[in-house]
Amino acid sequence: MSKEVVAPGDVVGVAEEYLPGENVEVDADGKLRAQVMGVVIRNDKDHIISVKPIRSSNLLLRVNDIVYGKVVAIPNDRVVIVKIIGVENNGNKTLLKDDVTGIVPPSQLLNGKPGSASEVLGIGDIIRARVISKDPPYTLTLRDAQLGVVYARCPRCGHPLKWRSGELLQCPNCGAVVRRKVSLVEYWA
Length: 189
Ligand SMILES: [Zn+2]
What we know:
The chain is mostly beta strands. The chain has no helices and 16 strands. It has 2 domains: about 5-55, CATH 2.40.50.100; about 60-155, CATH 2.40.50.140.
């Protein structure tokens, strides 16, 4: 079952359907609204809807979640440190409020092609990755055609790079060609 994450003030139901439970209030129009950031819990037997607060954004991420993150460091040109900025829930992208750190180990960069991380990623790139560990710092993988860089800027002039073909991005401004492990389904430029 997928988690429905709501923010304070979000409508979680109507008073005809559910009774307000924990962290839910009824507004003047009979709408049930969340009072906290959290996960919606529907008790369909007793018709009670409540919101379980999220105290830490750690609770938001689970194994196999698809996340978006910014590459912040590549120590020793091997491990990639990522600031996770968003998560996909049923195709919707939710931004994370707190900084959550992800790590892409060398073995999760490319299928059977070990090498230096900077050959396939750059600092500042935005990547789409899958969570493969239960606890933070989250281990991420890019080993799938849909995973990889979704946005990158030209290392020479800073202009956003466009996808050219395969694993190649090109700068429309200065013509530089850059190799990346590109997400083949979701490049943004
Ligand atoms: Zn350029």
